[in-house]
Amino acid sequence: LVLTLRLDGINDNNDNLLLDVLQTNFMTWVNNPVIVLVHVSGSQGRSTTTLNHLKKISEKRSSFLIGVVGTIGDQRSSRNGLLNMAEAVSRTRWTMVGVDVERGQLLSLESSYFAKRAASISGTRTGNVFIMPQMAATSNIDALMSKDSQSNNAHFSPMSISELLEQYASQRENIVTNLINLDCNHCVTSREEQNTEKAIHNVWWNLSKNEIFETPSTADWTVVSDSKVNSQTRALNNLQKKLASLLLEEYRTELLQFEKHPVLMMDTMGPLPIMSTPNIVSEVVELPDLCTNALRLAQLAALDYRIMPLVGAFTISVPESRPICLEGATEDCEMCDANGFDKIIQEESVRVAKFAAVMEVKGGRSWHDAL
To answer: Nearest CA to 280 among 363, 231, 337, 352?
Structure first.
């Protein structure tokens, strides 16, 4: 698990809250390896306080690496840059990236279990990428909140998949997937969820419901199962094509307006032996974080990595876990449309297309098949 956090700007009102969110995710991953990288701007005292908090988080734990990068002054860091730095030191075959601590996103209770199971089922078959949906509750959920008996501070408890399904059944309007409208620094021009984002959530939702609720108890189970397998296969193939097509110029708007940074469990071994995932596809630091959420995911799909939902695992935030917003905080989305950024995206798309052509020669699917 790779967790990154930026404590940037002169306002430190949310530092403790975001560190609590990070701690919850750290502990939810049980005793599996965790890499934490935090950038802190401002005073030396702020960096020291952050480091002390992180030391407490790591007590009684093994298999972790924690790094703090401190800069003096009001300097904004790159999320993409932090992710690349943290991923570079990972030594496991599978890497989970993208959990949005800065949005107050909390890993679900069984996320570690479902991640291990997916890795185990993959076995020696390489080139799999599992994607986890991200949600937000518009009001606090008791299952996610607990009180420390020694204080009035709220601490976060991981939510289980069964609790999510129950919540969705009883208060569906309380669970949303369009996160940007809940952000502090949301764009002046509001973004709507794109079709591909909705497709990711829908495929995950249907497979997860089947996982939790359905059992082979009916007499015609084999026939029903075959029908469902065919339906699920079509849904996954359609999702793969949707993601790969985001690299095409005609879908550039949807690529730029993908409002979530995907939570991915990636196989560091690609579909072919010559492919090393971190070396082939990394985050593009030259692009603004806001504009590149789906770029790497689209590149992976085009390179014939099998994109599948991480069934049963998700992240969710509640009002208490999200940063306290300052009045007047906005961010202009129009910067994503700048010609310079569009040129970089085009270059990245062409680079992947050329690599896909090499893959075809060496036995992989063609670029046209991927699209």
So the answer is: 352
Place of tokens 């002390």: 52
Q: Measured between alpha carbons, how far is 199 from 137 in angstroms, rounded to an integer?
A: 20
Q: Is the model's pLDDT at 368 over the cut of 50?
A: no
Q: Say what the pLDDT of residue 54 is.
A: 92
Which residue matches tokens 């599978």?
A: 94
Three-class SS of residue 70?
strand
d(CA 29, CA 108): 10
- Residue 308, classed as helix, strand or coil, is strand
Q: How many CA atoms lie within 13 A of 175 on its CB side?
A: 19
pLDDT tens for each residue of 29-75: 988 999 999 999 988 889 999 999 999 888 878 889 999 998 887 77
Q: Are residues 80 and 247 in contact, defined by beta-carbon separation less than 8 angstroms?
A: no
**Token pair recorded at residue 252:** 């550039």
Q: CA–CA separation, 148 vs 344, rounded Å?
A: 49
User: Of residues 226 and 158, which shows the higher confidence score?
Assistant: 158
Q: CA–CA separation, 195 vs 251, rounded Å?
A: 11
Q: 343 Cβ partners below 8 Å, 6+ apart?
A: none
101 DSSP assignment: G
With the CA atoms of 353, 354, 359 and 365 taken in that order, what torsion angle do they form, in degrees rounded to the nearest 10? 30
Which residue has better confidence, 10 or 36? 36
Q: Residue 78 and residue 284: Cα distance in Å, rounded?
A: 10
The phi, psi pair for 240, rounded to 5°, reads -60, -45
Checking if the pLDDT of 148 tops 50, the result is no
Strand partners, 41: 71
Rounded to whole angstroms, the Cα distance separating 7 from 76 reads 9
